[in-house]
Structure formats: C-alpha cells, structure tokens
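Example 522, ligand alpha-D-galactopyranose.
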Amino acid sequence: MAIKHKTSSLLASLVAILLIAFCTGNIKNITAWTPPVEPAIILTPKPGPKPRINGTKIFGVRPGCPFLFKIPATGNKPMKYEVLNLPAGIKVDPATGVISGSIGQPGEFLTTFRVSNDLGTTERTFKIVCGNSLGLTPQMGWNSWYVWENHVTDKIMRAAADAMVTTGMIDHGYMYVNIDDCWSVKPGSKDPELNGQPRNSAGNININKRFPDMKAMTDYIHSKGLKAGTYTSPGPFTCAGHVSALGYEEQDVKQYVSWGFDFLKYDWCSYGQIAKDQSLAELQKPYILISSILRKQPRDIILNLCQYGMGKVWKWGKQVGGNSWRTAGDLGGSFEGIGTALFRDGFDVYSTDSLHLYGGPGGWNDPDYLLFGYLSNWQGQTVPTPLTPNEQYTQMSLWAIVAAPLIFSGDMTRLDEFTLNVLTNDEIIEIDQDPLGKPGYRVAKKGDLEVWKRELEDGSLAVGLFNRGEEPALVTASWSDLGLSGKLRVRDLWRQKDLGKYTIQYTEHVGRHGVVMVKISK
Ligand code: GLA
C-alpha cells in the first residue's frame, strides 16, 4: 500500500511539473519538439483557358547545330503556333509548336511567338542568339537521381518524358529529361543487368542492360519536343561505381553526340584519386578538357559542372566552359536532412560568398535539384518529400530569386496537384527565367527573418520575404533595404494577386520556414 501511495504521489508531482512547464512554455526543454503538420495549401490559380506563352524569352544556339525548341504555352488545346521573323534554316510546326532545323549564320534574331486557340491569340517576343553561348537562362527540366538513383532504366526515362507532356510541365518551360548516374556498365556488380565489360573492342563505352538502345531513347524524348541529358565522371568510375570517361573523353563525347544528347553533367567522383592535389589548376583541368571537346562538336550540349563547390567553383565555372556549376554537396544526400541542407546550402553558402556576383547568362549557380513529390529515401522506397509545404514554396522561390536551374528530381509519374502547383507557377518561373539574368541576393537579415531581392529586366524587383524560424512571424521588406522609394505596386506571385500600392515598406505574415514572394514595380 505504502509503495503504491508513494508511486501515485510521484506520478502526481510529475504531472504537475509537466503542467507548469507546459503553461510557462518550457515544455520544449523537456520533450522533443516535432514540426507542425502543415496543410498543403495550393496558392496558385490554375492556368486559364486562353493562350499564355511561358518559359524563357531568350535562347542560345551555335551556328549549324540542330535547333530544337517547343514553344511553351498553356490554355485550351488544340493550339496553333506561329513564329514571326524566324531566321533562315528553322521552321515551326504549327500544330505542335516545335521549332526545328539549324541556323547557318551567327546573329541575334528577334522573333515573335504567336499562339492561338478557340478563345483568342497571344504574342510574345523571343530572342534567338546564334553564337557561342548556350544556357542564356537557367536550364529547366528533370533529373532521375533523387527518385530512381541506381534503378534508372530506359522505360523510366521514357515515362518521365511522357509525363512532362501529360502533366503540362512542358507548357511551363521544362525541357530537359536527364539521366543521372547508372546507365553505363558497373564492372564487378553482382547484378547481371549491370555487370559486363566496361568498353567494346573499339573502346566505346558499354551501356548496361537497362538501356537497350540509347539513340532510340533520345529520339523518343526529342519526338516530344524535349531535350535529353546524360551523366559521366572525369574519373575512371562514377560516384555509384559505373564506368566513366577517364582516358576516353573525346570518344565518349562523340558517342553522346551520336546518341543525340543535349546536356552533360560531369561529376567529379573518382577523379579525386586522379587529381594530384586540390589546387585550382587540378580542379579545373578535367572541366577545361571536356568543354574544349564539347565545343568542337556539331551539337549543342549544355555542360553542368558537378564538383560540390570545391575551389569556389562559382568564381571560375563559366571560364572553364560550364553552363552551370553545383555550389555545394548533395542537397538530398541525407533524406531527413533535406530541410536543413536547404537552408544551409541554399541560403548560407550562397550569401557567405556573394554567389550572385558570379552567375549570369551562359553560366549559373546550381544549388542542386528541386526535391518535391516522391523521392527515394535511400532505403529502397520512394516516399513523399520530407520538405513541408512551406519549405517547398521556399525552395522554389529561393531558386527563382538566385537564378538557379529548375531541375525537378522527384517521380514524374506521381505528381500530385500540390507538387505540380509548386513546380508550374508561371509568374515564379518568369522570375527564374528573367532575360536580364541577374541573380538575386539577401538584402536584410534580422535573426531568422530574411529579405532577398532580384532585379528584373522590366525595372521591377522580385522580393522574397523568408521566415527561417520555427514560429510564424511578420516579415518586413523595407524600401530602404531594397533601394526603392515612393508609392509602389506590390503583387503576390504565388497567389498571382495584386496587393495594392505601398510606400516605405511591405509587411506580411510568413509561416514557419515559409515565404511570401512579391514583385514590386512602379
Ligand atoms: C554525386 C552527385 C549527385 C549524383 C550522384 C550519382 O553524389 O553530386 O548529384 O549525381 O553523384 O552517383
């Protein structure tokens, strides 16, 4: 009895302590805190039925190289596509909006896209720059890594291309469908689909059995008006242990050209064993080599440097021929850590070294892929992203402000309405693709609250009000921090809604780890 009494009074005291702690707010100190479950609120109205032209307004191509560009437009289908003032050598298919051919002479060509459907016609200018520069705005597309990692197949790639069209992502400007690691043979693998000789008797790299016919696959991707990307390493093996380019760089690039690839991710991986040291000369060497080979090819291939930011790659990535360069390690290397990595690599790495000074037309800072929808949890399952809805809006907004490539890496075949909404808001995409090509940066930081701005071609500003804190908060974007003055128009870009005119500042409630993204103009 006595023991029972003692136990119950002990329990009573514990409950009392917990109650006091809870009421005084000290509960967080004695129990593990879990993030609140946020409703996945769709902020953006669906695209209207009238035609609207989206995506990039400027496109680089080299003389004589195959041109392929599908005009991205939303609205009721069928649509009729026309282009005014097309340069000689290329033509548009009026039913699909795919522009193809090749331009013989260098030059700048100011064309007009005209798209019509049963409800009307719309026009937008589109500049074609035929010269030496590719990637005049950040690349948009999909990459297989974070959902399919080492299980990627030809079938998966084709299904991703299909989904680009059926989900309408292609109509918002997404164009690259890129295989990551794991398409070549993996010598010594126990999996008979992957094992095999690294190269054939002519030295050509062998594809593993999951890809029966690379050329047929890229033809399929191209037939949808999309472009195809591939992946290799300057070392002997890729990060996942598959055969890569060392000693065969030129032969492999020629192979990619004959297969019809339009994008190459060149991932450092095992080159660490080859480089003599971490000097700039050694860090740059494999990229200088590969870009000089790429430049000689009769095909435009975007070069994505992937070496995790070593040697402050942003300072020289463009100089060695990169059209984009990864600025940090893998954003999704730890599934549970994606949120933490987003704030560390996206916000802090970028700000600490003023990365905005280095990105621009032709070469972009690449903080890694958009990690929404279904992703691999690295334990054999594909599961929903650990990013909360607010964090997803934050990633997309930040990527648009810093002019990052918009490369989604979740499952293309399992896109729910919320995920698609985050990926396809045309006013947010327009910020990312702004033709001025000036990456934005942080202008104010008060504790967890940050304001970022990006200058746009039309003289207005894109402004992100971010809350990195654990509680909702009021975030203020003040005109003095933004370098503005006077009565200015503010538009909410996620909600696609004008908010009115403001002087001095704009203040908004922002949720935990969330963002309000506005455009401020005269
Ligand atoms: C590295 C890269 C990733 C991915 C994997 C593939 O980790 O940073 O983006 O390409 O290799 O093995």
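Summary: The radius of gyration is 25 Å.
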